[in-house]
Amino acid sequence: MSSVTSRRLINLMTIVTLGATVALTIYWFNLGLFDDIPTLQNYLNHSGLLGPLVFILIQIIQVVIPVIPGGISTAAGVILFGPWWGFVYNDIGITIGSLINFWLARRYGKPFILHIISEKTYDRYIGYTTNQRKFDWLFGLAIVLPVAPDDILCLLAGLTKMTWRRFFWIIVLGKPITIAAYSLILVTGAHWLGL
Fold this sequence. Notes:
Low-confidence stretches: none
């Protein structure tokens, strides 16, 4: 399969996933779960481990195969499971997905990456990897910043000489900061809107 076909398939999967998300949201709305967010959270909590495991799996997939915008799924975690557990489940899923991205890029190289992102996007960011020490610092900073293209950078990091240990610690220590910032913004916004 060509990289262009792969990216088209990912775009199609994104549309299907978005449609499924809208359908699920409408279904839950008709059940009245959005009338009271604690009711929705209680509904999910009664699903046992299934709800959190499915959500973590969705987060892993959206990092590796970008079919759902990360901001939307992170917001969903906070809304569905509350600020604390939403943060925990988001962090677990995104961390595992980031580690998988690094491994896939390291194992399969540029050809794999071009199945996920376009050559234009690849060319825009690959220049940052020429100086390993500078890239390590930029990568660490980008992981902490909420607006950086983290998934692309995790793929590119797999092409560099960055060690597994360094990558692991940057992700494990940096990602929670970003996820906490998103969670805080969502909780503050919800309180401000009176939800």
